[in-house]
Amino acid sequence: MENLLIRIRNRVYRLVRYESLCEFFHIPQCYKESLVEYHAVANRPFYRVGQPAVYFDLKDNRFHRYLYALLMFFDRAGYQVLLRKRWLFLGRLSLYSRMIMRLENMHLVDRPPVQACLRVYQSSGQAKVDQGIHLAEDYFTPAEGNTFHVPMTMHPDVYLLPLYHERSRKLSGEIRLFFAGNVDPVRYTSPLISKVFNKLSRVELVNTVIQAYPADVVIPRTRAECKPDQPVAIFMAVDPKAYLDVSAFMETMGKSDFYLAPPGVSMPLCHNIVEAMFMGTVPVLQYPELFEPQLEDNVNCIVFKDQEDLRRRVSEILAMPPSRVTELRQQSMTYYDQFLSPESVVRQIMERGKNLRTLCLLSEQGSVEMLRRRLSRKERD
């Protein structure tokens, strides 16, 4: 019965994007709230001519929080973010994407200004006509010279924490291997992970570690137990009663040397792998190729191939000398600073200049569905 429910759920996910469905039911309220936000933005002083600006012409909200992160990156890098006034788009801003309207350097405009150093269009045809950049959701396409894949980000809430500006560079942890998150088998055993990406699911990976190292694993049963008072080999905060909020999660991450980074609901990439590298915690993962540039085993991450290999790598982690752990943690943090931080993402985009034609941005189920269809066509051919 459980497998039947999982199959039905995944079929629905392929037909209707979950976030888009939520968005649909929130449209009336979103229009009301967006109207308030719109007037707040419209009453700001008009954009400054001497300050660099980026222009976005968007028709819908399929990118959700990933769009917010991208625009927030430009805002924090000192660019004015000029968003074309489209009521259909503005009225459908929901959840975290509504935070776009609250960016300090956000302005609504009727047309692209002459001085915009970057013009981004959701319509590929409009991008071609105006010699701009196409914002595409086909995220899992191979990288090309004129394409840039905007990397996975931390969760939007993390950028708002005081911890984000006060990151500790302590590179020795009280926890050797850490994981915290939802392991509901109904949500985290999607066949998309195995069939589309050829990866193990979150439930499979977490259970593999727990079953292989019963004497080393600590599973807190309450939130009070989530702050270990002595060194822990493997700390698995998977009990719903021991849920960690964003602040506590990041604090625990900073005390950990390695982080088990399993897939999310429908794709391998999750916010928590970026959050780990931000804190200098080494990710243990199966999908290094989804980063650009690719993560390197035993340099800035630990890579495993299957369940047996995961058990072997965990044994290596538990026996690893402190000096080697410190080296890996430093490299993990360095990778974040060079390729995943807001400043570095904007720098990479702007360095491509006129050669850039496509920005690939995640849209969760939308990006996965495009990959699934492409693989299905290859199988038929």
User: What's the number of domains?
Assistant: 2
Beta content comes to 5-15%
Oligomeric state of the chains present here: single chain
Side-by-side strand order of the widest sheet: 3-2-1-4-5-13-6
> Using only CA atoms, what is the Rg?
22 Å
Based on secondary structure, the structural category is alpha/beta
Number of helices: 14
Question: Number of DSSP strands?
Answer: 13
Helix content: 40-55%
Order of helices and strands: HHEHEHEEHEEHEHHEEHEHEEHHHEH
Characterize the main sheet: 7 strands, parallel
Model description:
The protein has 381 residues and is an alpha/beta fold. The chain has two domains: 2-152 and 342-380, no CATH class; 159-340, Rossmann fold. Helices cover 41% and strands 14% of the residues. It has 14 helices and 13 strands. The strands form two sheets. A seven-stranded parallel β-sheet has the order 3-2-1-4-5-13-6. It has a six-stranded parallel β-sheet with strand order 8-9-7-10-11-12, sandwiched between helices. Strand 10, helix 10 and strand 11 form a beta-alpha-beta unit. The radius of gyration is 22 Å and the shape is globular.
